[in-house]
Design a protein that fits this description.
- The chain has one domain: 3-Layer(aba) Sandwich (Protocatechuate 4,5-dioxygenase, Chain B).
- A seven-stranded mixed β-sheet has the order 3-6-2-7-1-9-8, with helices on both faces. A two-stranded antiparallel ribbon has the order 4-5.
- It has nine helices and nine strands.
- A hairpin with a 6-residue loop joins strand 8 and strand 9.
- It is an alpha/beta fold and about 250 residues long.
Length: about 250
Amino acid sequence: MLISAAVCPHPPILVPAVAGAAARELDGLRAACDDAVGRLVAAAPDALVVVGGAPETAAYGDGAYATLRPYGLPWTSPDAPGKGGEPLPLSLTIGRWLIERSADPAMRAAARHGRPGVRYRAVAFDAPSAECLALGRELAASAGRVALLVMGDGSACRSEKAPGYLDERAAPYDEAVARALGKADAAALAALDPGTSRELRAAGRAAWQVLAGAAAARGFGGELLAAEAPYGVAYFVASWTAAPAL
């Protein structure tokens, strides 16, 4: 059963060493992510599942490793991946990096070694909503106390310098997502249109709908910890906590 969730963005520049001179511009966003992940750890889940978008839906085993080498940083976790291990996609790599920043040593160790209790699931960026919702239900039922770290960016069309250029639909889209995340409105996330999300280059749509599926069976309280678009791309941080059972 899902007991807690955190939503964070996954740009590689969230990592200070990748951002370089621009690192301080994302200090507030980074602090919000640390807060959200800290709340997940404090919920004491039996299983923490990191969910994020990727070209294909996939589950990753113990041999998976995170790396930022494609982004110019010689960082890999674990330091010496086992032979035949699969690299995690960017969204899950940044999720692993965030968990390793956690103040909890057991959780840091679990993140680095894929156990105990930390799992990684990718969902295809273009996965149909029904598939995303079904995956969320599956994950929520996979342990007695499940926490999700949901990695996803908003639209990439918020300015003329944005990766997707300026699209007037982007700001209202992102406002709706921010509202849904802040209110823990699973139905609103489930209703996001995959076509519009794709046109606005919202990389988080599928992962957010996995969260919607996982959260549909019970009520949650939500808090929006950050909502920014510093480079024309929307970044959200939110925390969801299950309402007490009646």
